Amino acid sequence: MQVAAGVWISLAIYFLLMIAIGFYAYFKQQNNVEGYMLGGRDLGPAVTALSAGASDMSGWLLLGLPGYMYASGVVSIWIALGLTIGAFANYLLVAPRLRVYTEVADNAITLPDYFANRFHDKSHLLRIMSAVVVIVFFTVYTAASLVAGGKLFESSLGLSYSLGLWVTAGVVVTYTLFGGFLAVSLTDFVQGVIMLIAMLLVPIVAFGEIGSISEGMAIAQQANPEVFNLKNGVTTMGIISLMAWGFGYFGQPHIIVRFMAIRSVKDVPVATAIGMGWMILSLIGALMVGLAGIAYIAKTGQSLSDPETIFLFFSQVLFHPLIAGFLLAAILAAIMSTISSQLLVVSSSLTRDVYKLFLDREASESRQVLVGRISVIAVALVAIVLAGDSNSSVLKLVSHAWAGFGAAFGPLVILSLTWKRMNRNGALAGMIVGALTVIVWVYGGFEIGGQPANDAIYSILPGFALSFITTIVVSLLTAPPPAYIVEKFNEMERGLK
Question: What is the dihedral angle through the alpha carbons of 378, 383, 386, 387, rounded to the nearest 10 degrees?
């Protein structure tokens, strides 16, 4: 496959820019744990918002969601709607409270840190179990993002899938390794801008080639009479399952860690406006790419073997090589922003919740930063191995990890920030029940109405519900939290005023 020089030039500029930001952050950040893992809690609202959005969306925004629209039609809107509602609720409910409470709770750096400090868990069970959830599900999540990178290199650049994995991981590891959280957040900001431009540019040009949006919609309906059917073979429970993706936001460590790092709780409203505006425009763009793809393929008589490559297809056939390289960089931006955030969260957990807890409780700040950097490399290598199957579906892999975090951590985060009667036992029970429910629901071999349980009802629904109920019931059946924990909760509420 011959790739124009302009594509390579654009990609080379993008790679160099990301690495340069990483080294800039290396010299700018504080050389301590809070600096490396949380950027010194000094992110502005714009960087916070676009960093949260870019790390959230990943390759599925440019590959998975357009592919779903291309294959199934507007039924895919239910995912976008659920995500939008969930993200907005996350900004309103979780962001301000978590920003205040993580400082009140002995300056917690990681989510397991927060859980352990919030409930004064001297047994370390909460920290250990939450660290296990982070490490297991995020390794799968990182692998899903690397699959998207491998597909990009294979289908658009004519390189091998495995080389794509190594190049994608190599660039991300480089800037994450040196620049830590600040590098991840700054690169996310740049990547978020690139992603938004790409998601608006591609459908505009594609519909222009077709003739107009109305003409494209007419052609799409001729090609697929069910394209505008909001149900299109999906049951009411199926629609609820698609919208249930929104529940996942409350438990995603790589997203809510941005709320812990924002400069001030007073910056949250501005971050909310920027973040939600970016998200809504990006989701609309992704859906329109899939819709334009149906019409363009039908009108030109071409074929597309993998629906998840429709964005890649457009970048190759509609644009000058320099612009095509920019669009490919947008996909890499989506992929890399998520990988870097995931690597940093897992490495932080391995450092704070495994190494420091079990191997070196007196570890210095500099030693913890070193262990964090080593962990970034180790996790990346494991994820590369897990991403070895090029036939893996990006959306499916992401959906499993998203459900796992949403069910295990979502109810725990919400209740810990809003209900002072919650105790350690309830938190631990809810977390375990949520995580196990998702695992059993996906891999237990159960069927509902003749189809796999996870196809009939998305695993986050039973996982989130059972975790929420379990947390409340166990908390009420066991002793209330001691007065000093309740006072910390009251201090958090005062900090919001």
Answer: -140
